[in-house]
User: Fold Protein TsetseEP domain-containing protein from Drosophila guanche.
Amino acid sequence: MQSFLIATAISLVIVGLAGAQSSTVANSLDDYIDQNQRQYEAQIRKYEEALANFRTLFSKRQQVIDVQADLLQQKLEEAFVRINPLSLIDPWHKQCVQNYSSSIPTIATVRSRVASCQATISTALNSADSVYNTLKKYYNTNLKNSLADCVKKFPSAQLNYTVCVTKVIADANAYSISSQNSFNTHVKDADCTVDSRLRSAWTCSFGQVYSTSAAIENALRLIDNCIDNQLVCGSVSCSSGCPNVSTINLTEADFRNETIRNPFRGLSAQAGCREFRFK
Assistant:
């Protein structure tokens, strides 16, 4: 009887040790799985940060064009502030302003032209986004299903379960590395694409700055010349030219002589204006 009790006690101890060992292995695998899943979650966050930073940097590089639009608007406003009061002085000034101010584009037109230069990120990040979405789906679906299959296939065979889980994790790690390489390549390609688009956008916007500035300066110069009567025009209304035109042929004149043919000879005093053109 005593021997039977001893044998029973030993059996219970062995069963208890076996159960404890099985529980320890299971807990160890859970920790192993959790640790890898935390790494996968960190990888996803890294992708999200990279994509967000890319878009933020793109937007900041675009701000140069917005600044140019603001500067052009300020320049146009200054020009209109200068010329608008001139038209109120007298008919002469008013006509001068009307003749040349129309060549100055409106603020709305300029802003629209500059805005049309804006680059778009468009499809540049499509491939990188695709890698991110595919990897995220892999972690959330494929990986979880594969780990669940290990439990279903080997509910009591601890060794086989361990082999199954480690293989699933190894496959996930290999897929993660492959995805990371693809993601880096696509982001680099996107950077080259966006850089080219931004250079084209900057060239376009600088062209708008130059053409608008030139139009403003030219209009202001013509208005000033008209007001100062530096253009040959009538005394009543300022126009871009005089209807009475005389041509002086420079090749027929001998500039070594102290006198030349009188270009006013025979002209009517009632003409009002006379424009001389040299050729």
